Amino acid sequence: MPDTYSELRAQLATLTTEAYRPELAEIDRLSTLEIARTMNGEDQSVPAAVARQLPAIAAAIDATAERMARGGRLLYLGAGTAGRLGVLDASECPPTFNTEPSQVVGLIAGGPSAMVQAVEGAEDSKELAAADLDAAGVGPDDTVVGVSASGRTPYAIGAVEHSRAAGALTIGLSCNADSALAAAAEHGIEVVTGPELLTGSTRLKAGTAQKLVLNMISTITMIRLGKTYGNLMVDVRASNEKLQARSRRIVALATGAPDEQIEAALTAAEGEVKNAILILLADVDAATAARRLKDSGGHLRAALHATAP
């Protein structure tokens, strides 16, 4: 066996996400219901593991929001499941928060084709991460989140190292303690989820934990940026019939206005939910609503306060 594989095998043996659980050695002999109950029990430990990292997560989010408020971007980089979760989170931001596709970006080792098919060797290259970030033009106002369950994936570590050298804010999200990824980043988040039901299958608890943390990073950052009003998605982009109906419901919940007034306000605001709410609550025309939202940096609550007598 080549020395490279001996070294890697020794590394993997130290990771809790790769640990073998002899008590589950005969899980394949259980009934389907028993296996499902076992998996469900395993999954219940994930939120507690995330909870232990909430101070670190909050600090990373505040730093991210500060950069994005001055025009920076949020970029996720990872390989395999970690990369796919980053791409998923990024792709959901435009319809949810009306962000431009360039504002929140997911990059996966091996490129878009790696979303559906493994690209051999891509995760092993720090240089590939550097090239992907150079192509994206990463800079000082950006935030780069390296995601890796093991915390040792060269692509994720390389992304953080290269971005930090470029002056970007860096976050390292892993599921093992004392990881190289967290050490390389300005903000290390280590959600230790422990051994998996299937040995080394980090698409399970580790993947769930990563999804929960990425949900927090994107959602709370957008709240800090004024993309919501209370718990309403007032920057939702009505790109289909369901979202058009949701837009009207959001305006109704925020204002209590009757349907005909809601339709008139949305028409005047060219479909922009936040503007329509301001038109109704502040009793202003569309141009005034747009100007006041611009003056408040897009924060509806601030715009409403500014228009109060």
From TrEMBL:
One of its GO terms (molecular function) is lyase activity. Its EC number is 4.2.1.126. Homodimer. A lyase-type mechanism (elimination/hydration) is suggested for the cleavage of the lactyl ether bond of MurNAc 6-phosphate, with the formation of an alpha,beta-unsaturated aldehyde intermediate with (E)-stereochemistry, followed by the syn addition of water to give product. Belongs to the GCKR-like family. MurNAc-6-P etherase subfamily. It comes from Streptomyces roseolus. The lineage of its organism: Bacteria, Bacillati, Actinomycetota, Actinomycetes, Kitasatosporales. It catalyses: N-acetyl-D-muramate 6-phosphate + H2O = N-acetyl-D-glucosamine 6-phosphate + (R)-lactate. Pathway: Amino-sugar metabolism; N-acetylmuramate degradation. Keywords: Carbohydrate metabolism, Lyase. InterPro entries: Etherase_MurQ (IPR005488), Glucokinase_regulatory_CS (IPR005486), MURQ/GCKR (IPR040190), SIS_dom (IPR001347), SIS_dom_sf (IPR046348). NCBIfam families: N-acetylmuramic acid 6-phosphate etherase (TIGR00274), PRK05441.1 (NF003915), PRK12570.1 (NF009222). This is N-acetylmuramic acid 6-phosphate etherase.
